[in-house]
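Journal club side-thread
Mid-discussion, someone asked how the predicted structure for our own chain would compare to the paper's figures. Pasting it here so we can look after the session.
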Amino acid sequence: MATTLENNADQAASQGKEPKSRSRRSTFLKWLRKVHGWVGLWGAVLGLLFGVTGILQNHRATLKIKVGGPDVSTIQVAVPTPPPRSPRELAKYLQAQLKLDRPAERVSREAAKPVTWGDQSVIQPEHWTIRFIAPSYLVTADMWKGGNFVNVERRDQGLINTIEGLHRSEGAGVGWILFADSIAGSLILLSLTGVLLWTELNRRKTIGASIFVVSLITMLVLALQSA
């Protein structure tokens, strides 16, 4: 009789624990679905942008996708008086003179050096190169020190090239870069929550693990072949 009562008590205790376990699992799955859904909504629009531009960049050469070339124009800008003492000073002058909305991103200085010209040796003067980069345009300026003019080339990228520039964050502001980083983080979170949802809702864990391993191996092999 005592044994029967103990068995009944054990069964009641196990039945009491099982609903609690199911309740916790159900709560966790509901929370996981909400996180997955809200994160997906945050990254949906920009994810679509990155997806389309990524396809264009991957297949433009092989599929000969024409998106229109940039509009290129070249001018000469007079060197101010007194002349700038460094490429950085010249970059600030050009930004103000050409009314560019951002400072120079790349500034380089090539030192003067002797070169052979015909049958004689001459000193080639110092060469300055400055680049202003934005998603919608690229401005390149170069000047030989001691010259009176700066050669400036502007390339207006057009709509598709501008969108691709945003994809690569070329010349983009800090706000856009942080926003794009948040989308990258959301993709990581979507991957993790998606795997957790799959493992919790699908009992065929062996098949899922096999798909994951095959995908990982395929990625590594193709990456090594392309390197």
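Post-session note: DSSP finds five helices and seven strands in the chain.
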